[in-house]
Amino acid sequence: MDPDPGKTMRPTEPETDRGEGRAAARSLLVKGEEPSEGFMGVAEELLAVRSTADRPGDLRRALDLVLDFAGPGFTVERFTSAGKPSALVYHGAPRPRFRVILNAHLDVVLAPPEQFRPRRAPGRLYARGAQDMKVSALVEALVFRELAARLPYPIALQLVTDEEVGGRDGTLHQIERGVTGDFVIIGEQSGLRLVTDSKGMVTVNLRSVGRGAHGAYPWLGDNALLKLHRTLDDILARYPVATEEVWRTTVNVARVETFDAARNQVPALAEAWLDVRYPPQDADLNGRTAEEIAAYLGSFCAPGVTPVVEHVDPPHHADPGRPEVLGLQRAARNQGYDGGFLRKHGAADGRFYYQRGIDAVIFGVGGDGQHGPDEYVDTATITPYYLALTEFLLALSSP
Fold first, then answer.
1. pLDDT at residue 12, as a whole number
2. Domains in the chain, ordered, with CATH?
3. I need a labelling partner for 74 at 20 to 30 A (CA). Which of 81, 154, 282, 290 fits?
4. Looking at residues 194-219, what average pLDDT do you find?
């Protein structure tokens, strides 16, 4: 891991013309109205940044843009791990235990260049990252700027650039360096509902070893790829591919490959990537160590196939009766939303806080098309989201 550059105080000198435009964007309209044109302009600027894992310069650019939008006068701690930059912003010093952490990721998954050219339609803003989750990040930055110095308790804005590739070099990296709090709001998309439960995650490589031979004489070899396919068939018989939403364990086969370069060669080596998502009800996986899960998956493997478990993250859960959860639900309802509870099949960075006994919920704007060619944010949810976060923080008491 790379060393952390440390903390800085953002200067309070006059902003540039570009900064003045962003300062003007830091006001949203009243309940029921679309966000200001200024805010939408900054959102489009951020959405145009191709902040994917393979573009470190654009990861930094997206991070700096949101830090600039949050404004001067705050302490900014910058972190870097495995080339992924992140930041923690708060008022004053030294770093306290935060009453609330507003967490946002600024990285997005790969997409063609045209998906980084934002376009508007009535009630929608289309672009890669519009729903997941750059617009929510800007709203969190706006709320932080307006309230951080006014609240009777400390809050933080946590900005990371690696959530889409696991979150271990952003949120987890910061936690391992002492960042902590009482309650965390992850700004992932939710349509102003509260995600209190998420599935656990296991990443697995299946490695198959056979015996190479000339493709014209297969009886002289032992095809590693065929053994791997038999193993995958057995695993998927236990965990069938879901054809509709269901709260059970799912296994996604993300890659199957050999290392042969010739058609007339029996593969001696083969490998498959598995992405396993499981609810707490799965006793075969929940609460198990990586070694125990590897042994369990080994029972499905053909001779010569070995499961290698890279990461195990438990399911995430937040107490729906916790005062902060109820307060956030009440704030959403006051904006005309039901604030219902959701379960998510995907894992978010809240799981790292959950493992340390800190409640975290997902609460963000609405939209659709996450990770797809027609991803969009429902612009009618932006202002209510801003107002709900503001109301929640103003009503929350010190611990």
1. 33
2. 6-198+316-395 (3.40.630.10), 200-313 (3.30.70.360)
3. 81
4. 96
